[in-house]
């Protein structure tokens, strides 16, 4: 958090030192092995100067790893006495290179990231300008954050069989642990070799499908070989790990079964080497390796191949072609981009983001919220389309639609997505009144085509995934990864796309009645990762609202649909009220329904109890009456018995009917 400072002067500076709960050696090891490190530095000021730019002595500074005083601030570069706004030319007062140096009496700040690894971490903060009237400051130094493994992409390219890199002798007397990645098109070659007087250690590719780990500790050569069912010289990255200890020797290649050899019970066991370690070749300069080796580790120590390759002829630092092996890690339409020391995923045309284009971009829509993406207008666009302009439109026919999105809602009907054209055609995805999903095409030649997915109520507060793919005349609709519909159009001429709208369509004049009903409230809920061909309209609205051709109306809040589904969806969706425009008269407020329901149940129970008591009294009265008439003659009894039986039977039937009717009323 922010720490406030007052009363600091050059003769009485404010000083704060930081403890990272790690030794300096540990911190240095973490930073040096990381690909990137950063610390946020924030200075909030009110009449308190920071660096006193451009030419004055600084009033605040920080101390780094080597106990050196640094006069640049977050977002700037070493050696430049500036803040981030100075580099960006965006400071409050252009005469200064920091916002705080304008020395104003209202709060402002200079905030940015310190990212020069050799100076990190920040170990001390010093402030000296908060002793004047109304002068105050607040500072914050964020945690040290390091990303990536710098050595993971540390690679060297071997261009000739005679080229190699040499390192100091590999000390592996009783144990050796070697791991690395390689890729090659050659059929054979030595990855590394280290010799002694008689002893040696070697890892090589002997044939396109065979990797061998050879070692001799004085008892004769021992070889562990792994056979691959497919060629390993396919110019793809493969992983090798060779280990040796007093008990066994083993070799692992990719995920193939490990080859393990037990060490002899007697004989020599110390590996004695004395020559240099050769990487990518041998001491005899024969059977050298052609290709790339990266991330080489010997007994846990990383060898800097790139640095050694810079000064070695025939070997180049780095290795091109990472996307051939790792391009499939860029998901959801992300494009693999080659880098000198690795690759990155370009998510520009993807509806997702993150290092591998896998992080969803989603937002909450309220009643009336809409996002409209405007496509480039066909040229020329005239109100009175002539034959020539029609020909131009014909060239703009969309041969395909690849649409994908996820949604979560409790309201139906709803309008999820609407695409219209300059020819008054449209494609609409709606939830009908009963929660079914509908895909509606209105085409100039085929008219209105409606495709209904009636496999359930999709307005059920659960996250659903929709994919609509049309390639030429073939249409495929998938919902929740399940194929729901296939259709072949007789003719399709969906052309001159005008706009794409998520949620409520503001220009609703041309909507048909069903789409108009769905559009009355638009969409209320969560939409995620919306993709239309190479365009991501939701991502454009959230990430680039000022430069993308997108218009947002109403309340749009970035959120995660997946986390919302796990939480209480009632905070996201609106319950229907009695003012629903589509006449849902039975959907009243829950509390009113509960009161009315409870009253009905209580009344029914009381009625049933009264009828049961009445029936019991009737039966008892009839029994007493029959008992009093027991003295009558048997003849009279015989004559009356059928009548009494019939009356009793009728009374029982009436009683059963009465109780049955009572039960039916109760259950209603």
Automatic annotation (TrEMBL):
* SS bonds (residue pairs): 292-319
Tell where it localizes.
Membrane
Question: Which CDD domains does this chain map to?
Answer: EGF_CA, LamG
Alphabetical keyword list: Disulfide bond, EGF-like domain, Membrane, Repeat, Signal, Transmembrane, Transmembrane helix
The UniProt entry, under InterPro entries, shows: ConA-like_dom_sf, EGF, Laminin_G, Neurexin-related_CASP
Gene3D superfamilies documented for this protein: 2.60.120.1000, 2.60.120.200, Laminin
Pfam families found in the cross-reference section: EGF (PF00008), Laminin_G_2 (PF02210)
Q: Taking the first listed entry, what is the main subcellular location of this protein, grouped into a coarse class?
A: membrane
Membrane-spanning ranges: 600-625
Q: Which domain of life is it from?
A: Eukaryota
Q: Which GO terms describe its cellular component?
A: membrane
Membrane association type: Single-pass type I membrane protein
Report the residue ranges that make up the Laminin G domain in this protein.
Answer: 154-319, 380-561
Which SMART domains does this one have? LamG (SM00282)
Q: Which residues form the EGF-like domain?
A: 320-358
Indicate the family of this protein. Answer: Belongs to the neurexin family.
Under the heading PANTHER family, the entry gives: CONTACTIN-ASSOCIATED PROTEIN-LIKE 5 (PTHR15036:SF46), PIKACHURIN-LIKE PROTEIN (PTHR15036)
- This chain's protein is named CNTP5 protein
């Amino acid at each position: 958090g922010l720490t406030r400072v007052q009363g600091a002067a050059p003769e009485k500076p404010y000083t704060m030192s930081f403890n990272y709960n790690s030794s300096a050696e540990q911190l240095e090891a973490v930073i040096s092995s990381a690909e990137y490190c950063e610390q946020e530095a924030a200075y909030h000021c009110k009449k308190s100067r920071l660096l006193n730019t451009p030419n004055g002595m600084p009033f605040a500074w920080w101390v780094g790893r080597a106990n050196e005083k640094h006069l640049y601030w977050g977002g700037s570069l070493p050696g430049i006495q500036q803040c981030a706004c100075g580099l960006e030319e965006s400071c409050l007062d252009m005469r200064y290179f920091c916002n705080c140096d304008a020395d104003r009496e209202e709060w402002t700040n200079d905030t940015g990231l310190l990212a020069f690894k050799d100076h990190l971490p920040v170990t001390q903060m010093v402030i000296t300008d908060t002793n004047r009237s109304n002068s105050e400051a607040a500072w914050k130094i964020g945690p040290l954050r390091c990303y990536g493994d710098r050595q993971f992409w540390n690679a060297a390219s071997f261009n000739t069989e005679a080229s190699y890199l040499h390192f100091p002798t590999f000390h592996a007397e009783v144990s050796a642990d070697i791991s690395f990645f390689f890729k090659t098109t050659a059929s054979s070659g030595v990855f590394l070799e280290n010799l002694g007087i008689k002893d040696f250690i070697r890892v090589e590719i002997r044939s396109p499908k065979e990797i061998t780990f050879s070692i001799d500790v004085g008892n004769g050569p021992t070889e562990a070989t792994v056979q691959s069912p497919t060629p390993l010289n396919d110019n793809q990255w493969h992983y090798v790990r060779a280990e040796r200890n007093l008990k066994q020797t083993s070799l692992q290649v990719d995920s193939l079964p490990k080859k393990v050899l037990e060490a002899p019970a007697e004989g020599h066991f110390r590996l004695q080497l004395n020559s240099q370690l050769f990487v990518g070749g041998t001491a005899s300069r024969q059977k050298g390796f052609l290709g790339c080796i990266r991330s080489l580790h010997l007994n846990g120590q990383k060898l800097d191949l790139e640095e050694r390759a810079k000064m070695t002829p025939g070997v180049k630092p780095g290795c091109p072609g990472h996307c051939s092996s790792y391009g499939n890690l860029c998901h959801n339409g992300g494009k693999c981009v080659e880098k000198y020391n690795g690759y990155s995923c370009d998510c520009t045309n993807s509806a997702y983001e993150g290092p591998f284009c896998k992080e969803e971009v989603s937002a909450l829509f309220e009643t009336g919220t809409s996002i409209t993406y405007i496509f480039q207008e066909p040229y020329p666009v005239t109100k009175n389309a002539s034959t020539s302009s029609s020909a131009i439109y014909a060239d703009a026919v969309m041969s395909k639609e690849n649409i994908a999105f996820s949604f979560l809602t409790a309201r139906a009907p709803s309008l999820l997505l609407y695409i219209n054209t300059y020819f008054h055609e449209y494609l609409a995805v709606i939830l009908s009144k009963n929660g079914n999903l509908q895909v509606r095409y209105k085409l100039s030649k085929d008219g209105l085509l409606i495709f209904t997915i009636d496999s359930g109520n999709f307005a059920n507060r659960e996250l659903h995934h929709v994919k609509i793919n049309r390639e030429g005349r073939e249409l495929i609709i998938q919902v929740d990864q399940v194929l729901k519909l296939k259709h072949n159009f007789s003719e399709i001429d969906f052309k001159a796309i005008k706009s794409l709208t998520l949620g409520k369509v503001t220009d609703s004049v041309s909507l048909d009645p069903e789409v108009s009903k769905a559009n009355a409230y638009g969409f209320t809920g969560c939409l995620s990762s919306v993709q239309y061909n190479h365009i991501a309209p939701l991502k454009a609205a959230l990430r680039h609202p000022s430069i993308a051709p997108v218009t947002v109306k109403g309340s749009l809040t970035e959120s995660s649909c997946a986390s919302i589904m796990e939480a209480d969806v009632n905070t996201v969706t609106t319950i229907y009220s009695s003012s629903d425009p589509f006449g849902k008269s039975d959907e009243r407020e829950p509390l009113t329904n509960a009161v009315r329901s409870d009253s009905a149940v209580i009344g029914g129970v009381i009625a049933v109890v009264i009828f049961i008591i009445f029936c019991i009294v009737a039966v008892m009265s009839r029994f007493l009456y029959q008992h009093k008439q027991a003295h009558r003659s048997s003849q009279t009894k015989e004559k009356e018995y059928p009548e009494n039986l019939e009356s009793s039977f009728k009374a029982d039937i009436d009683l059963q009917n009465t109780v049955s009717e009572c039960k039916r009323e109760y259950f209603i």
